[in-house]
Structures
1.
Amino acid sequence: MMRFLLLFSRQGKLRLQKWFTPISEREKKKIIRDMTSMVLARQPRSCNFLHWKDLKIIYKRYASLYFCLAIENQENELLALEVIHRYVELLDKYFGNVCELDIIFNFEKAYFILDEFLMGGEIQETSKQMVNRSIEASDMLQEDDNSDWYEVELFG
Amino acid sequence: MPAVSKGDGMRGLAVFISDIRNCKSKEAEIKRINKELANIRSKFKGDKALDGYSKKKYVCKLLFIFLLGHDIDFGHMEAVNLLSSNKYTEKQIGYLFISVLVNSNSELIRLINNAIKNDLSSRNPTFMCLALHCIANVGSREMAEAFASEIPRILVAGDTMDSVKQSAALCLLRLYKTSPDLVLMGEWTSRVVHLLNDQHMGVVTAAISLITCLSQKNPDEFKTCVSLAVSRLSRIVSSASTDLQDYTYYFVPAPWLSCKLLRLLQCYPPPEDGAVKGRLVECLETILNKAQEPPKSKKVQHSNAKNAILFEAISLIIHYDSEPNLLVRACNQLGQFLQHRETNLRYLALESMCTLASSEFSHEAVKTHIETVINALKTERDVSVRQRAADLLYAMCDRSNAKQIVAEMLSYLETADYSIREEMVLKVAILAEKYAVDYSWYVDTILNLIRIAGDYVSEEVWYRVIQIVINRDDVQGYAAKTVFEALQAPACHENMVKVGGYILGEFGNLIAGDPRSSPLVQFNLLHSKFHLCSVPTRALLLSAYIKFINLFPETKATIQEVLRCDSQIRNSDVELQQRAVEYLKLSSIASTDVLATVLEEMPPFPERESSILAKLKKKKGPGAVSVTELEDSKREGGELNGGGDRGPDTAAMAASNASTPSPSADLLGIRSAAPVGAAPASAGSLLVDVFSEAGPIAPSAAVNDDGFLRFVCKNNGVLFENQLLQIGIKSEYRQNLGRMYLFYGNKTSVQFASFTTTVSCPGELQSHILSMHLCTKPVEPLVEGGAQIQQVLNIECLTDFSDAPLLNIKFRYGGALQNLTLKLPVTINKFFQPTEMTSSDFFQRWKQLSQPQQEAQKIFKANHSMDTEVLKAKLLGLGTALLDNVDPNPENYVCAGVIQTKGQQVGCLLRLEPNAQAQMYRLTLRCSKDSVSRRLCELLAEQF
């Protein structure tokens, strides 16, 4: 399973943190520090994988943002890279040419999109269409708060 | 501010975020945040009831502040209120807040659970999904208690929407991982397995994660999933890239599901059903074939997804380890990747080949890539790739290529990154010993190791070279010459001085004929290093000097002069002072004959398995014990003697502690003098052979201690099991007393006759000092088929001990007499009483236990997960108190306890320092009794 996903900028500013197992706040801060320093220190054109404690760290840079995903030892590294890519695609589809600012100002949306895609550290839905459909459906609900749930069906 | 703000924008939130971003300094940011917190607090406390929108906005702001890294101590109640809003958007923010800021406040959990319960029963799929997500995110015990029985029903119900099924499957998985005892699949099992056949690919993808986890824990109950998984996989593999619509990822059909299916199959042995197996082999061949086809897209996503499946298929092939054809094909495929321009693929190919190297079918095929791998070690820009290359070289090493590989690793060590040096040193030492054909090569290699990376050479490594030199007279002269030359270097590592001092003290006479290395030259060379060395090394050198007096009477005056000077005889270190005084006295009063007897050459060390080798062996696989392994362990009975890894140095110190050296106690000491005439096995035989030929020591030929080490940190479990018999134990300890319940289960349908058990203390026969009283009643001589009988063993610990009691079992099964001896897991730590103490107390006591022999230390590689909770559980299982906030480094663990024996109490302090990067530990024990330090250190070094 996946243990956590961190998004941070080239300056090491954390933009999104998702923890799939309960971890104390103190431990989280330490992991964030370790990850940012480890990943930012990597030379360009290095491989995208690192060993860290008993986990594998998979990272990839998209524009100004680093995506850093920790997976358990027996998991597949290449597929983890594509988990990151699929999430970027989902963000991109939702925001249209997603940039760091979109994630800063709409952090709650970034979480909702991630929740549709992953759950409990496992893939919930790999289809881009399916994920987008449920995100759009909930956006429709947001625009008309008085609608009741039957309308979800219309879009779902 | 960005223009995009879909759904409903919360303008106030955007303004706030923007304000924070405009803050020029940390102080300004904190000021702005405090202002906002005050504002929100007053709104929440105000008389006016807030509308849902405002509440949502403020909760969202609090969440933002929390995610920036600030503490939030209010707003939880408002977030919980949002959960019961019937407006989706408010509910969603409420759940997000709860998921991120889990609070163990039980009042709140009850309210949250209530809201979740309502949403789960709302039959509104969107609400249900939100609730399931929240359970998965929090995953607490309370939630598992409340919902673990409800969720399987939602998962398999016919009218549940697909999206809810997906969430339910993964939510259940989360709960199963945190509280497996609460998730009972029982009647649902077969319906869950059949989700593998679900029409909806998303449902299968989610469900398979759950099924895989359940299968790992209960393989038998879920074994029907194998054929389902194979047919699903076969359908995907043979489908065209467009068949699966949106589940095709960059022209690769369902990569996630394919990998998950291949992963699930790795929980099981190859399918027994011929048809199923045939179909699976076909799938694996198709996957290998596809790797050779031209890519359907130039995008890296395409090749990543395709290769992800390929690597997973190779893992399965390696897991089966039964299809030579597929193994060799897999190896060739990885060989291609070794030279691929994508760094990621080179990295993964190196990693995957490591496991292939251990299969007998593909070992040779892997070896053909040696030049490429060596080249990778030399030229890869990325240290993580180089590390994989080093791992692979280690894995592919055998007698035929050992010299080449060791040479390459040594030369790499000169420039290796600091982070991986320690591990490299260990690997070189293991390979050099394992594949040594001539000992001069071995000695050269280890001395090179010390020269190049002395700081990273652990005690085991240099102890080992000394043991081997002492046991092999054909290499002693060479070793003496080589260390003498190595010590000529103006700056040589302290470990080199230790090895040099020890070897010259023993075998300096072998090179003394050459005037360039005359006795006095040798002595002056050693003594020139003396002042730069630490106390333990100086102590060792002093012992070497007294050995010199015996070997070379002409050096006596010079050495006595050295011993007599104030810096020795009045040294502030008690150990050094004592040695100087004793050696000086010994050299002046003892006759030449006495001196020659006392300072005689070291007898050979008992041949036994190298401690470094033992580590290696354990790494190979702590899995089930196969018959052949059992056979092996019978032949290697030598290691059961449990003498441990006391190195020559500590032994020397212990010996010198005896105030009047008796002729039988050699000053350079060895733990148990080897029986006279116990000559090493025929010269020229390989080291490895020597180890496996060590004779059995226990009275019964086969002492089985496989289970023994697993019980150091726990008291209950299955100690032994074979086809006939299962032995379970339960034990409890208080003070210096213990009681162990032994359960003997007859696994056959046939009666065991003349069933007798005997418990003995291993020290009993040799000495009259008993370490413990063991008391038990005889068992019934007949054990019916399928029956279990119980025996109670009472234990009283009289004094500290190293050797565990032995349990001998004899019975007749059919006509044949069965005879079995087991080590009972009664270890010294069972008599621990935990001791809580403050940091200052701890350090004060630590300092009090500062004599070198009171400390035992080991550096070793992690063999198990380094997870904090696992470690804590083990340390608590040990019986000591785990002390928080004592060690200045929070990564380290310190423990304290008192061992209760009848005669005395032994205080023990423990410190465990994990190095996650290197996957190593350093374990230090200080006890008021030195034998206890050593024993605990040995026992514990195998536990982590």
Note: The longest strand of chain B covers residues 905-915.
2.
Amino acid sequence: ALGELGQLALEQLRRGAAPRACEAAARKLNIDVDTIQHGVEGLAYLLTESSKLMISEIDFQDSIHVLGFSDELNKSLLQLYLDNRKEIRSILGELAPRLPSYHSLEWRLDVQLASRSLRQQIKPAVTMKLHLNQNEDQTAQVLQTDPATLLHLIQQLEQALGEMKTNHCRRIVRNMK
Amino acid sequence: QRFRFCGDLDCPDWVLAEISTLAKISSVKLKLICAQVLRDLLGENIEYEKILKLTSDAKLESGDVKATIAVLSFILSSAAKHNVDSESLSSELQQLGLPKEHASGLCRSYEEKQSSLQDSLRACSLRLSQLGSVCWRVDYTLSSSELQEVNEPLVHLTFNVKDRDRGRTTAVSMTLSSDKFRVLLAELKQAQTLMNTLL
């Protein structure tokens, strides 16, 4: 019975609740639908919390020992947890809120020669369209700058890239690996 | 080493890696594949089945076929972008290891379509908005709630502005008195004269 409920719990985590699957399982195991539903939700909760906190084997075993199940059931639960921990963690990882991310940048270089108020000018300008992605939504920002500000922008970005090469950053990256 | 077709920068590593894949295809078939890639760059439909047939002799995997299309797209559009003539392109590709017949076949295809390619790239350069069309109507106001006899001409103008990203057209409408309209027309004519001096 644990196998069935385990699969239902995992599917619920991957795709959301599936009442019809629960009804099918209830008929097969000859148990009330509500009991099955609660069982699946409880199992899903147990798996998510354990995966979220990255509980060790011993801690997991101690925690479920309190429930008073048979040894065999405890072993199956532990196996279910260990087999699916990585996948559950990656699903949980995608639930975090996301900032808009870079998609592409279009640019053009123009020279303003005259305007309504002033003729005989020479004013270079760079116009940019920054395309951003946010949760499958595409937005675009139009920006305009003169060459001096553009150079400053490039310098700042190169400095930011250069930070990765400082000892401080290198130490942190090494420790994270 | 700097290459003109890469904008006087180093050749990207992936392009270097895929040149050896290009050499696996016969030079005749490569020229035909180039023709297909050029169709795609010019906005016509690419015939993927034809490319699959042409690459089947070289026994390329599906990933390699896509890489071939990608590297040819890059070479052709980048050469057009930096206005590289076909002889320089041929010699630079040979420096990167592409065999001579392959390079000359590729460059002959490039030369035929170079100016169309550049026109197409010019057309899709960044543009904030684009005027689609102008509609106008001249009315004559007889009277209003403020004044019984108005007797003035009035111009209604509608500019249909295209937003290229979303493919939408927005209508910008306005009403002008004849004096204002005269000023607008005079200013626009001055701008047009300035533009003509640059052509």
Note: DSSP finds seven helices and three strands in chain B.
